[in-house]
């Protein structure tokens, strides 16, 4: 039997032909894997990190393009995740098209039902993911709650003694009460990356009362503030602000991640909180922190014995309303009327936000009512209880509300309502969970 003909080998590389033969080894040894990874990351024309960051900052208006850049190689993904704040801040020009709501930044919400949380018995908070929009093709990231543990190795979100007290820009503030001792234990965590910071406990006279309001401020909120020598410029920096009532006055206290310490208790000058409410959203603009449902605003963060405050009682008198600051700079005020209609007000895009905060949405020159939204399914599912607005997702332009033991989302761009599956019962506590652009790009390092 004649042997099978073999394919002739390729011609060698010579000066006459000008060709170069590239031979890829069939099997890589352990010593050559590091060299191969180095070649993969430095293939093509070498560009400095500064040049790559400048190009990537131009892609921020289209979040999908920047995600594709992060998926190209490990070096690009490392640049996008580590320099997320720089990339996003360079792109926030007045003419940028990045100031729009991104529906997929809202990942879900945490909630507990009425009757499942008492001073002697708690149920762990449940997380319900939101469905991605029909136009979204990317994989939705969901938080891994089982990996979040405190310093003792115990889970903080699957424990019956924990509750979510604040949420903003990808970070959660969880209170843990495993004992009946007069100690306030708070944890600031990022469920996407798995980071958990156990804050110094507040005990004795430093401990606030049972009811208090909490707000976490991320690097986007702190860019207009100056704190001296503290390091609040990296993507992991944050500040935690507590508001509570003492006998005869309202007090505030602030924790800094840069120093790792609580500041002194400060007396709020100029206003006070009559009825303390927890799990309320905030609005932050150029260093001013507003709690609409508390009818209070802090003009500065508490750092000394007295902090300047301002009352918003005459502006936002409806306790059930929600106030939010959209990415394009417009303020949005939503409230429920007596006939269960959701009325939505917007400010003009070129208006001053601080002046708009001092005007009532009903008669302010900078405000206009967009429309009154009627619940379309009230005929098929009769409303046994009033509609309650729960949470304002600023980055995604969504409002979470409950009606008749169900949860729904209202899209402020399309004015469409979607039903959220997984909630059956009277909701007691609800905290939305969404990412901002910096938190989203920083989380790509964990993918």
From TrEMBL:
InterPro entries: F-box-like_dom_sf, F-box_dom. Residues 49-83 form the F-box domain. It comes from the Eukaryota. Residues 1-13 have a biased composition (Pro residues). Residues 1-20 are annotated as: Disordered. This is F-box domain-containing protein. It comes from Oryza punctata (Red rice).
